Amino acid sequence: MNYKPLPNHLTIKESTIQGLGLFTTVNLKENLPIGVTHIKDERFHNGYIRTPLGGFINHSEDPNCEWKEDEKGVVHMKTIKNIVKGGELTLKYKWYDPEN
Fold first, then answer.
1. Mean pLDDT score of the chain
2. Which single residue of 2, 23, 30, 77 has CA 20 to 30 Å from 66?
3. Is 65 in a helix, a strand, or coil?
């Protein structure tokens, strides 16, 4: 098994939003699971370790992805809109809160 920091259909490149961003190399459908962005671990800053997937996604007030934390403290990201090939994946930087 080879470690892959990103799914095959994603790449990191310069963003018009800020710095580097996460982009798709294929068309992505709405409601598509993308992968793990963070894992709960109190030893790390803010109590989570960030994966490469979580490290390069930029903020948008009109995001095309969302994240949810499962019962084990693993944060998963999925698309909430169709994203065309070459499009940047974005999240709204409001941390998941199971109470809201």
1. 90
2. 2
3. strand
pLDDT band (50, 70, 90) for residue 1: low
pLDDT of residue 46: 82
Token pair listed for 83: 């994203």
Of 1-10, 23-32, 66-75, 85-94, the least confident: 1-10
61 touches 30 (CB < 8 A): no
SS3 at position 47: helix
> Rounded CA gap, 34 and 66, in Å?
10
**Residue 83 and residue 51: Cα distance in Å, rounded?**
22
Q: CB–CB of 17/58 below 8 Å?
A: yes
Of 86, 93, 39, 47, the closest CA to residue 66 belongs to 93
For β-strands 74-79 and 33-40, DSSP reports them as: antiparallel
SS3 46: helix
